[in-house]
Amino acid sequence: MDENLKKRILIIEDDEYLRDLYMEILTAEGFMVDQAVDGEEGYQAVTRGGYDLVLLDIMLPKKDGIAILRDLAQNPPEGKNKVIVVLSNLGQESVIAEAVKLGARGYMIKSEMTPEQTVNEVKRYLAEST
Amino acid sequence: MNNNHTTTPQSKQTIDSLWRLEKIILDTLNFKDVVQRICDSVLSELGYLQLGYRIVVLALIDESTNVLKRISISQTPEAQKALEITPVPFQNIDIPMNYSENICIKAIEESKPYVTHDWKDILLPSYNNEEARKIQEIIGIHTSVVYPITYHGKSRGVMIFSMVKSEEEMSEEEKDLIRGYTDVVGIAVQNARLYSDLEETSKRLDEANKKLKELDKLKDEFVSLASHELRTPMTAVKSYTWLVLNNKSGEITPKTREHLEKVYNSTERLIHLVNEMLDISRIEGGRVQLKLEALDLVQLAREVKDEFAPRASEQNLVMEIETDGKISPAAGDRDKIHQVLVNLVGNSFKFTQSGGRVSISVRLKDNMVEVGIEDTGIGIAKEDQERIFQKFGRVEGSLVISKIGGTGLGLYLSKQYIEMHGGKIWFESEPGKGSTFTFSLPLYTGN
């Protein structure tokens, strides 16, 4: 728990209920969690950098997740983000492949996960990156 | 004039000339080009202009309107002049097929050539006597010969050769050549027509195909978007229900738990259904690409057995894997074959009573790897057996409300995936005793 307190996570998610859900289950674990409600807000936050983990949705208003990854790849922010993981309900293999090519570490399909599995995956990605 | 125009002996020179003409008009299949060349080549290639020929016209029967239609005219100065001063546009000179005062119609009806010194004979009723005479005078045509064009023994139209000389001045060689030529023209016109029809048809098919592809793409985009939109609220329902069921919002009563478990399971089923519909849309649109690898099916069967272990103990079922010796790898897409196995084993779990057995066998047979999933369940009723692989071909009598499943799409999807691999899927079942579903996959050969 103490370790978790120092970990900073950014959630870029436009659906309010899902944003609330991820906030709730991750803060309950002691993580410091920021949230962005659309692609533009998400991109701004992510370029400020310094996150241990970014959970990135793909279908987002204003700027989609693939565009965010592409822009990040072209202009890497000064304060680096350690890991970006896609958390989306879009399951097309082509989109997954594209996201991974652009630097996403992994891909989670929201509807296939229980809250417990999501938390476990988040912990696993954080452990990998330290 | 010799009426029997098909058996006239032809000199070597005529045959050579004919061969040259044939080459020119058969060189293209475009209908417009062919009919233009038919009129021009006698004059330009064989120098018939010097022999007094001035205008060559091709007219064909339009079967839909039953008229003889002017199709093409030679590109000679006399023809141009005639086109300029004609009272009726060339394309509108239509002779009704029952108008036998016109010698073109007679030539067709009787399959023999006709000759005239009077243009009204070839222009009535489109022109009146006076108009025909006047134009003929201005152009200075003395004689016109009309030859029928036949193909497959049927008259298709005529060629009209108009010249400044008299019929008597036509040599036997000229007549010979024209007879031979009109025979070839019949074939050329028919070929070009067929080709143009074909071209038109294939153009239309191309357009239709393009439209269908666009529609298919739209459908794919729609299904993909719809499934995304459906999954989002379903994820919220599933996740919040999970939180409540796991006491994250405080203790709940057993009755609340029982009800919420049904909410949770139903949501899982919905998610599963959306996934399968998306899969089917991709398969049916031909957008599924298999990632074939050397697949160890015994290993895959073990993994699936492990995945089902909690359910096996929950439902008190024995799970086994049977195999004889070392099994060569099959050529399979890991994710898809995993999905098929989970589906088939899941079905067995749904239809097998407590204390029963589900076994997976992996065997080599006829250069294929055969995987059988056998259960001691309730079996499949005879009346249900036919539609088991159809979409929503679900049978009644599921014993357990499954955590996942019951969409009625699983077997259909499994069949599609197996057949995409070049394999087969089938089953044997005896009501009351159990079922065995078997699928086969080709061996991995490295390609």
Automatic annotation (TrEMBL), chain A:
GO molecular function annotations of the record: phosphorelay response regulator activity; transcription cis-regulatory region binding
CDD domains, alphabetized: REC
Domain of life: Bacteria
Gene Ontology biological-process entries: regulation of DNA-templated transcription
Lineage: Bacteria, Candidatus Amesiibacteriota
Keyword Ribosomal protein: no
The entry's keywords: DNA-binding, Phosphoprotein, Transcription, Transcription regulation, Two-component regulatory system
The protein's name: Response regulatory domain-containing protein
A Pfam cross-reference name: Response_reg
One GO CC term on file: protein-DNA complex
PANTHER family in UniProt: REGULATOR OF RPOS, TWO-COMPONENT RESPONSE REGULATOR ORR33
Domain Response regulatory: residue ranges: 8-125
Modified residues (4-aspartylphosphate): D57
